[in-house]
Write a structure and sequence with these properties.
With 382 residues, this protein is of the alpha+beta class. It contains ten helices and nine strands. It binds flavin-adenine dinucleotide.
């Protein structure tokens, strides 16, 4: 389904311009150092919270801004155009932690968790992937065993974004092994709960300052009231969560691609070879033209998926298409941007090598590109 996306309201335009200005003035100048030092940018998180961005799509009654997913996608694009790590912190908190609580949580859970996420006082995370269960998300082994008013969680989660820095974790665990994927449940686990610990931060190719680590559950007792939805609904909740998350990653990819395109366009006009700007060569012009076309197409797919989510229309296929196309676009555009820069694209004095390293993760997390194609093909062939 290809929806017609209405124009942004005056209020949404104003929010987006404020975010663009913040990204240009406060985030872009810091991005190279954030990448180089891998220091988690707490101060920028605080500023995003002060701007009301950390709960952008949560309803106002839970402390959010009550805005649309379309606006969220555009905001994530602007932030990731400046710094892919900074945008990801907000994106994951909202789409992978806030969304499942908003959609499947009890009123008490929403009141308790969405307010603190929206206020930026605490960050959120999703701990799903395990050493033996990545693409095969139903193959998880972590367990949650009911014990009176509690569940006791055991297992090891890997690659958790916002791991260690977040206070609120949506954790997937098996409550009924015999029921297969219908025996998986999602629970909210708070940092500080005895038995919840974290591995050391992983050192990564890109998004270096994003906190990624193991989440370890060792007889971790969680109140039964922290179960999201019903027992056995966890797989469905997580798949629907990823439909939202993939819109965020698509937006991140568009932001990275746009940054690479803008850098390459500016450089091509300034760099002289053979007595003229390299932008005068048709080979460079065609590369820029293809890059710009792909960026706009990726954004349109992303906004289509976001629009469906805003209207509660099932959009697993559209989210997968957006994430798949935008991730591949980010990788291709960043690679071409390095090419436009020639040797200078390969060194750290210029930003495009960072964009290339940051782009790669958008082809991997929240389901690899191969898994997105499986989702798309299944919906075509069912
Ligand atoms: C930086 C980073 C942050 C992450 N953040 C989070 C997070 O916050 N929470 C979380 O739960 N997880 C997170 N992940 C995990 C991420 O979602 C997984 O790494 C990803 O889904 C792939 O799983 P895997 O690494 O186990 O690869 P595998 O599943 O082992 O896949 C290896 C290769 O096989 C291919 N493959 C697998 N199955 C098939 C198939 N059926 N058909 C065709 N090809 C297939 C894959 O496409 C891939 O190319 C993160 C990962 C990274 C690197």
């Amino acid at each position: 389904m290809i929806p017609v996306i209405p124009p942004l309201t005056d209020e949404q335009q104003a929010i987006l311009l404020t975010v663009r200005d913040f990204a240009d003035r406060e985030v872009t100048p810091r991005a190279a150092a954030i990448d180089e030092t891998a220091q988690f940018p707490w101060d920028l998180v605080q500023k995003m919270a002060d701007m009301g961005l950390m709960g952008l799509v949560f309803p106002e009654r839970y402390g959010g801004a009550g805005q649309s997913f379309v606006l969220l996608a555009l905001v994530v694009e602007e932030l990731c155009r400046a710094c892919a790590t900074t945008g990801l912190i907000l994106d994951v908190t909202i789409t992978l932690c806030g969304e499942p609580i908003l959609r499947f949580g009890s009123e008490a859970q929403k009141q308790r968790y969405l307010r603190v996420l929206a206020g930026g006082r605490q960050l959120g995370a999703l701990a799903m992937t395990e050493p033996e269960a990545g693409s095969d998300a139903a193959g998880i082994r972590s367990t949650a065993v009911r014990d009176g008013d509690h569940y006791v969680l055991n297992g090891r989660k890997v690659f958790c974004t916002n791991g260690g820095v977040a206070d609120i974790y949506v954790v997937t665990a098996v409550t009924d092994r015999a029921a297969g994927h219908r025996g998986i449940s999602d629970l909210v686990v708070e940092k500080g709960t005895p038995g919840l610990t974290f591995g050391p931060p992983l050192r990564k190719l890109g998004i270096t300052a994003s906190a990624t680590c193991d989440v370890l559950l060792d007889d971790c007792r969680v109140p039964a009231a922290n179960l999201l939805g019903q027992e056995g609904m966890g797989f469905k909740i997580t798949m629907e969560t990823l439909d939202a998350g993939r819109i965020g990653i698509a937006a991140q990819a568009v932001g990275i691609a746009r940054a690479a395109l803008e850098a390459a366009t500016a450089y091509a006009q300034q760099r002289q070879q053979f007595g003229q700007p390299i932008a005068s060569f048709q080979a460079i012009q065609f590369m820029l033209a293809d890059m710009a076309t792909a960026v706009d197409a990726a954004r349109l797919l992303t906004l289509c998926a976001a629009h469906l989510r805003d209207h509660d229309i099932p959009g697993a296929r559209e989210s997968a298409m957006a994430k798949c196309f935008a991730g591949d676009t980010a990788m291709r555009v960043a690679t071409d941007a390095v090419q436009v820069f020639g040797g200078y694209g390969y060194v750290k004095e210029f930003p495009v090598e960072r964009h290339l390293r940051d782009a790669k993760i958008t082809q991997i997390y929240e389901g690899t590109q191969q898994i997105q194609r499986i989702v798309i093909a299944r919906s075509l062939l069912k």
